[in-house]
Specification:
Layout: H1 3-11, H2 22-31, H3 33-41, H4 53-70, H5 75-79, H6 88-97, H7 100-104, H8 112-123, H9 134-147, H10 151-158, H11 162-172, H12 183-205, H13 211-216, H14 232-239, H15 244-259, H16 268-285, H17 295-302, H18 307-321, H19 330-347
Helix pairs in contact: 1-2, 9-10, 9-11, 10-11, 12-14, 14-15, 16-19, 17-18
Organism: Himantopus himantopus
GO molecular function: chromatin binding
Protein name: TTF1 factor
Amino acid sequence: VDLDTAKQELEEFVPHVRNISDSSIRKMAGRDLVRFKQFKKQGIAVKFGRFSQKENNQIRKNIEEFLLITGIDSAEKLLFTSRYPEDKESINRLKAEHLFCEKLSEGIPRPWRLIYYRARKMFDPNNYKGRYSKEEKEKLKKYHALHGNDWKKISELMSRSNLSVAMKYSEIKSAVNYGPWSKEETQKLMHAVEEVIRKRTEKEGANSLSSSEKSQRDISIDRETLYQKLPWTEIEAKVGTRYWRQCKQKWTTILTNKITKGQQLYRGTKGLQAKINLIKRLYEMKVEDANEVDWEELSNAVGDVPRAYVQAKFYKLKVSCVPSWQKKTFSEIIDYLFEEKLPELEEK
């Protein structure tokens, strides 16, 4: 199929197809067009957005069946073949012989590329490695000295995901204080946040205010600006003794205390009720990934607090209550909390 025809035919199923690169369109024409037409005959629409539990189960089934057919040892070898250079040639030959693309997407009305990315996320053991040991931190420093910011290369050497090694290096690249925050550090943090917010607010209002209005007005800031999309690496540099995630967590604590006027929202009976509400709301959302959760909406489940506060509470909840949580998908964690932990909390 030529490119123009492919665009026309795919547009019926993928409305935004004209915003996709030509090379991606050619791949979709080869991998997806026939499948999309078959789904149309069955009255099934092509889907985007979050994957359902049914679709996740279908991906697992497709992977398991392909492994049985080919004799490939594991899903990791199948989906991350480059990690096994000695087996790469034979695995790629088996994938071609047994039509891996068709088998992986069987029964799932989505573009193949999205199914493949979802499968890699589900079956990558490097997503669930836990804390870095001292030895790993030293290795990370050494690899960064050799390879710079080539996080793909470093992730392969460390057997960690790209994002994990990049974020961890940002934490350990310089001497950082891990103890309690001093008054001086807290003041530096507050001044740094104030400075970046003030600059941003002044810049946004620069075109709509006269010079006299600019000099006389008080800068009013909506609450969302206080804790969303702040340049944390810039703030980290201004504080000097803490890495960016520490700064973000401390700022969330400061905001929570100010917003709630120091009330203990997560203690005693209130704490139990907050956990109950949080689990129920997460279960009702039926999402497949933490990135799909509207944490802003969920903040009302705990109290009038910043979204980062709720995210931190959920993290503590899953770590303390869900056995082997690192090996579970997000939806499996929520199901466990709802079915096993919720009754216990309600009884308390």
